[in-house]
Write a structure and sequence with these properties.
The structure is a homodimer.
Chain A: H1 2-20, E1 23-27, H2 32-46, E2 50-56, E3 69-73, H3 79-93, H4 101-126, H5 128-136, E4 141-144, H6 150-157, E5 162-166, H7 173-176, H8 200-232, H9 238-242, E6 247-250, E7 266-268, H10 282-290, E8 296-300, H11 310-320, E9 326-330, E10 343-346, H12 351-355, E11 360-365, H13 369-377, E12 382-384, H14 391-400, E13 404-406, H15 414-426, H16 428-442, H17 448-462, H18 477-480, H19 483-526
Parallel strand pairs in A: 1-2, 1-4, 2-3, 4-5, 5-6, 6-7, 8-9, 8-11, 9-10, 11-12, 12-13
Subcellular location (chains A, B): Endoplasmic reticulum membrane; Membrane
GO molecular function, one term (chains A, B): glucuronosyltransferase activity
Keywords (chains A, B): Endoplasmic reticulum, Glycoprotein, Glycosyltransferase, Membrane, Signal, Transferase, Transmembrane, Transmembrane helix
Amino acid sequence: MTLRLCCAWIFILLIPSLSDGGKLLVVPMDGSHWLSMKPVVEKLTERGHEVVVVAPEVSWQVGKTEAYTVKTYPVSYTVEDLDNNFRDYLAVHLKDLPFPLNTLAMYNSSVHAFHIFLAQCKDLFRNKETLQYLNQSGFDAVLTDPILMCGATISKYLALPSVFFMRGFPCNLHYEAAQCPSPLSYAPRLFTFNSDRMTFFQRVENALVSLLEPVYCYGFYKEALAFSSEVLQRDVSLLDMFNSASIWLLRYDFVFEYVRPVMPNMVFIGGINCAEKKPLPKEFEAIVNASGEHGIVVFSLGSMVSEIPMKKAEEIADALGSVPQTVLWRYVGKSPHNLPKNVKLVKWLPQNDLLAHPKTRAFITHGGSHGIYEGICNAVPMVLMPLFGDQMDNAKQIESRGAGLTLNILEMTSQDISTALKAVINDKKYKENIKRLSELHLDRPIHPLDLAVHWVEFVMKHKGAPHLRPAAHDLNWIQYHSLDVIAFLLAVVLLSLFISLKCCLFCCRRCCSKKGRARKPTKAKSH
Amino acid sequence: MTLRLCCAWIFILLIPSLSDGGKLLVVPMDGSHWLSMKPVVEKLTERGHEVVVVAPEVSWQVGKTEAYTVKTYPVSYTVEDLDNNFRDYLAVHLKDLPFPLNTLAMYNSSVHAFHIFLAQCKDLFRNKETLQYLNQSGFDAVLTDPILMCGATISKYLALPSVFFMRGFPCNLHYEAAQCPSPLSYAPRLFTFNSDRMTFFQRVENALVSLLEPVYCYGFYKEALAFSSEVLQRDVSLLDMFNSASIWLLRYDFVFEYVRPVMPNMVFIGGINCAEKKPLPKEFEAIVNASGEHGIVVFSLGSMVSEIPMKKAEEIADALGSVPQTVLWRYVGKSPHNLPKNVKLVKWLPQNDLLAHPKTRAFITHGGSHGIYEGICNAVPMVLMPLFGDQMDNAKQIESRGAGLTLNILEMTSQDISTALKAVINDKKYKENIKRLSELHLDRPIHPLDLAVHWVEFVMKHKGAPHLRPAAHDLNWIQYHSLDVIAFLLAVVLLSLFISLKCCLFCCRRCCSKKGRARKPTKAKSH
C-alpha cells in the first residue's frame, strides 16, 4: 500500500515535468562561443527537456560531455585543418602592417577563416541521414549562436522559432535585424574603439564606419547567403536571415557595455559564464598560498590562444619579472629563456576560481568577453592585450570605466607592460572602479543563466514570441523613417504657402488696379 | 542556554536586514495611480526599509493604512473640493461636443483639474515643518509617480536619486526624458487611438500629434514648471525635471502595449497590480453560485467613477437585461428605474477575485490600465467604455489584440452594448485571444512586484544607477541627430565634387586648347 502510494506520488510529480518538457535543437558555434552556451544547454537538459546539439564530428569544444545528446555529422576537414585555420587567422593579427593594409589583411583573414565553418554547414546539409533526423524529430525551437548563419538557416529550413544566443555581429546586424535604432552620435560601432562619448571627428568616423558596414558584412556573408538561398530555395538577404529571431539572448550588461536603445525581445545575460567559485585544485592552491602578501596575477590570452611569437613572449616575461606578485601564465608554447622566477607557466588554469581568490591582484587578458565578465564578477582589475575580433573594443570599454589599462600587443614594450601592470595593482582607483562595476553587475533580480533558460523555454512553449515582434518589420525604409509623411507634409506646407502667396498677390493686384483705376480719373482731372 | 542561543540566532538573522535597510521617501499620486504603488511600498516596508510616504492631509486613497509611515502636511482644500474637481473633469468627458470643441474642453478641464494637485505641492513646500523633516531625514532615494511633477521637484530639491513609477506621460515625455527613440512610423502617440500598424494618413496624424505635443504639454505644466523653478532657484525645463530618473518603473507589458524601442533603465512591471486570488466574501460567493451555467459579468468603471448620467445608466441597464448572465455592477448613483433582475448594483466589488472566478464570462470596464491588467491576468474578455485619459488608447490596444470590443460612451446605444457584450461572451475567439495574452503575460521570469522592489532597493543601495544613463544626455539636438556630421560629410562630398569638376574642366580646357593650337596651323595651311 505504501509502495503504491509512493509510486502514485512519484507519478504525480513526474507528470508536470514530462508534460512541460520540450524538444530543443541546439546549433552551436565552436570555440570560446560555446563556453557560455553550454551551461544553458546543460540546465535545460536538467529541467527535463530533450536537448539535441547538432555538431560536426570534428570540433574543438562541442560534444565533449554526456550531459546532453549530441548528434554529429561527418565533415570534410580534420582538427588540424581547424587549428591551422585559426593559427593563420591569429598570425595576421600579430603582423605589424601599416594602415590600410592591416585592416584589409584582417578582413581577408576573417573571410578565409569563415570558409571552414561554411564548409561545416554545407556538410550538414549534404548529410541525408542528419537532415532526415532533423526533419523527423519534431523540435519545438532552435537555440543557436547565429554568427555563422548555419543555425538561422536550419531554423528557417525546419520552420521553427529561434532563440539567438550571442555577443553581437561585427556590423550591427543584431540591432538592425531586430529593428533597434542605433543613434550614431553615442552608439559607437565595433572596430572604431570609440566610447559612447565621442569627439566630433570620432562621430564622423562612426558614421563612415556605419556606411561601410553593409559592404564588409555582405562580403563576409556573400557565400553563406548564396548557400542559404540554395537551401531555402529562394533569394534571401542578410536581414531576412536574422530578423526572425524570437528572442535575442545577448551577453550584455550595461556596467560594461555602453548604454543605448534596445528592443523588448532582447534579453541581457552578460556574466552568464561566471561560474560559482569552486575550491582550487591542490597544485594551484599551493602556488597561491606560497605567493605571500603580494598575492598573484592571473595571465591568459583565452582558451583559443595558447602561444605567441617568442619575441613577444620574451618581452612579456621580462615585464612580469618586475612585479613582486606570483604570475600564473597559461602558455603552451616554448618557454621564454628569460622566464623570471615569479612566473609559473601552466597549460591550463582554473581561471574563474583563481580570479575569485582574494589573493588575486590583477588579470592580464586578451579582452575576450568571457574573461572580462569573469574579471568583473570577481572584481579583479585588468591589463588588456586585445588580439582580434571585438577584443580591442572590449578592452577600450573596460579602460573607459577606469577598471583596467589597454596595451597594443604589436607596439607594447616590456616597459609598457610593467608600467601598466604595476598601475592596476598599486593604484587603488582601478580596484575601486572594478569593485563598483562588480557590485552593480552582481546586484540583479535574477541570475543570467535562469533568465536565458526562462526565455528558451518561453519560445519552446509558446512557439515563438510574436507579441515581442515590432511592427517595424512590416515597413519599408521610406515608411520606417517617415520620409513619405515628411514629403507629404512639406508638400502641403509649400502648396499652402504658394496658394497664400498667390492669393496675396491677387489681392494686391486687385487693390493696386483699383487704386490705379481710382487714380487715373484723378490724374485725368488734374490734367 | 537554549534561549541564549535562540536570541543569538535571531540577532544574526536580524543583522543583514537592519544593515541592508535603507530610508525611502515616497511621493505618491492620489487616486487609482496609488493602487499599484501601494504594494511596492508595503513590500519595501516588510523588507526592513524605513519607508515614509509624504501625503496631503486630505486625500482619496493615500495614507489609509498602518503598514508604512505616512507624513502628512496641511492643505488648503477639502475632500469635497477634490471630489468636485474630479466630477467637473469627468462631466466634460461625458458632454457630446463637436470636434475641435471637445478636444479643447477636455484639455482645459485637464489643466483645471491639475491645479488642485499643484496647490497640494505648493502647500507641501510652504509647510516649514515638513520641509525641515524632509531635509533632516537623510533619505537614500525618492520613489514617485512623476505625473504631477511634485516628486521630481522634491528629489531635485533634496538632491536624491529617484525612481519613477508610472504608466506614462500624455506627451511621450517618459521616452523623451529617457532619451529613447520613438519612431513615428510604428510607435503611436497617445490620444491618436492608432495601433502600431498605421495607414499613411494615420502616420501623418501621428506626426502632427507629435508636433503638437510640446505645445500642449508645456501648457499643462507651465505653472508647475514656474513653481519648480522657484523652489530650485533656477530655470528648469520639462526635460530637466524628468531626465534625472535613475530607473523608470513602467507599468507596461508587451502583450498589451505595442512593441517599440526602450532603454536599459526602463523596467517593465505591467500587471504588478494583479493580486493573488482570494476567496470571495460570502455575499458575492452566493451571487456567483446562484448564477448557474451562464455565470456572471463584472461591470465597473473604476475606483474613481461611481455614477454616470441617468440616461446612460438606463441605456446600459436595458442592454444588461439582454444577456442571461448575472451582472455585478459597481454603481453608487441612483438606481436606473429599468434595472433588470439579472443586474445587481453594488457599492464596491472585489474586482480581481471576481475576475479570477471561473464563472466570470466578461468584464465591462472603462479601460483603466489597472482593470485591463486584471482582465489579462485572469483571462476575461472585455467590453470597454473608455472615459478619459489613456483609456481610449488602452481600449483600442485590447481591441487590436482581439481580446475585447470598444464602445464610444457618448454614442453607444443600448443595442450596441448588448451586441458587444453578447459577442465577447459567445464568440470563442475573444476568450481564446485573452487566454493567450494571459498565458504570455503570466509566463515571466520574475513577478513584477519583486522586480519593482529590486530596482528601488538597487537605487537606494547604489545611490542611483548612473551606469544606465545614456551618453545622449550630454549631446545637444544637432549632435544627437548627427546633423553636424551629415553637414560636414555633405560639405566634403560637395567640395570633392567641385574640385574634381574644376580639375576635369581644367584638363578639358588644356586638351581643347592644345588641340585648338594643333589645328590652327592645319587650318592656316589649308588656307
